[in-house]
Amino acid sequence: MDSNAAEALQQPRTDREGERRMDWIVKLIMNRKFFTKIFISISIVSFIGVFGMAFVYQRYFKEVLTNNEIYRVQRSIDQTALNLDNQLYRIVNNVHYFFEYSGNGNRLMATSTADGTSEARRDRTWAENALGAFRLQYSSELESVFFLLRDHADGDKETLFYDSELTPVPEMDYRAQSWYRDFIAGRSNFWSQPTEELLFFQDRSLKTIYLTLSRYDAQGRDGILVVRLNGKMFSDAFRLLATADLNLELRNAAGEIVYASPTSREDVDPVRDIRMESNLGQSGFQVQAHIKQTFIDQAVRKVRSIQPYIIVAIALITLFISLILSLSLVRPVKKLLRLMKKAELGDLDVRFNGKFADEVGILGNGFNRMLENMTQSIDKAHDAEMKKLNAEMKQKDATLLAMQNQINPHFLYNTLEVINCQAIIHEVPSVSRMSKALADFFRYSIGHPKAEVPLAVEAAHVRTYLDIQHERYPELEIDMDGLAAYGRYPIVKLTLQPIVENAFKYAFTGQRDYYLRLYAEDVDDRSYVIHVEDNGEGMEEERLLRMNELLQVAGEGSGAGEDAPSGIGLRNVQNRIRLRYGAPYGLNVQESMSGGVDVAILLPKRGNGDEDLDR
To answer: 97: which DSSP letter?
Structure first.
């Protein structure tokens, strides 16, 4: 009983001691700075994730790298096989073309074999030249090309034709070679079996294959074209792949070895080595490769050797990211504390601009609402600024209205109608035309001050103005045909007539023949340009520059034209275009090709859309 009682008393004491230690640990942690707590927490979680990923990565890394290395080698073999197949396909096509389609085969079969005749010498010379030219065309791929003709009518006499640059090996008899035996037996194949047979000193390859094309019983003759491939072509194709760890073999359709890498086949371990194949679709050949497993393992180990460095780098990056995240979490709290201290000192203009709706953002919004009643002056200033902007916009609209109302005399339009009627009654057609033209001119000008019209309507108004000026300038040449194709595009009303009016006032002041040309052209799919071009007296370069400078700042002035008191003026037009469409649309003045002035008007192909065009 005594021992049990002692244990019962000891148990609460132990529990209290554990609670005190836990409280001490909690206080030790929670009394740290907020940044320290956040940084340690993120770092611990990040390191657990990183090393967990490293464990999984370590487990599956070898298999992934092995598969990647095998795929890389297989892709290299496939590409090399494709290149070799294309090379062989090109040679085969050219051999067929030389013998079957170019006429050389027929002529070779008809070559004279009579000894000592001039015809035989001529035919032999031609055959040697033709075969030599074909061989030289593929000197790096072909070692020898020759043709054997067998004449049944002449006692099966055989004549061998070959390039004069080739030197036969004296002790070699072509009748003992496999291609000849197949030819005599009538079983010649285009691809011969791999062979070490040679006929000329120029046949340097130890082992290669022949390409043969045969014809039988052609007017009592048999013939065969024999092409010996350069075996170096195969070794060159696989030179960069063949190593001590990679054994390569090129086999024909029958499975016979055409080429083998220097590695001995005794080194091939069919159990451990990895076998790869790649088929040559054009020639029917196949590339067989045996790569040692140790080679793959060695490549994998090279990559795995840097794995510790990668883990260290990831750990450092993790620490850096943890630091950045900690700072990003702590920075808003510190910012809110600084703003509170400024508010305590009397700075009531501070605001907390929280980007997120988290707890810190909620605290910041509460801080802003607390200061809201003391920042009424800021809101009032903002309202006043908005009213000022609205007033400026209304002032610009009023300015635009004043610009176009300069030419809005209703009473004059009515008077001109009366004059027109009187001229018709008294049979004075010239006065009638002038008064009607003036009436149409002012009728067009009376429209809505911000009207946007199609170019065709604006062009008709310009023609009315030109009809009026025709009485004063009867000899003036007018060309407006270049506007017809652009008639549906929008233009600010009363844009062209003021520019034309300027031309009459300043350009046509001499005593020579003048012309006025209006045409349009595309700039891009969104804008077009109208040219008002004359061959008048022109303008000095300095004045042109000054004029364009004034036009560039247009849109900020009062809007009244300064160039022509009786018209609207170029700056008036520029102001209205800029108010309507904004920059970069507007005018640009330049010298025309004939020495006059060319006013270019850049406009959009689509209007503002706030009113309908008069189509």
So the answer is: I
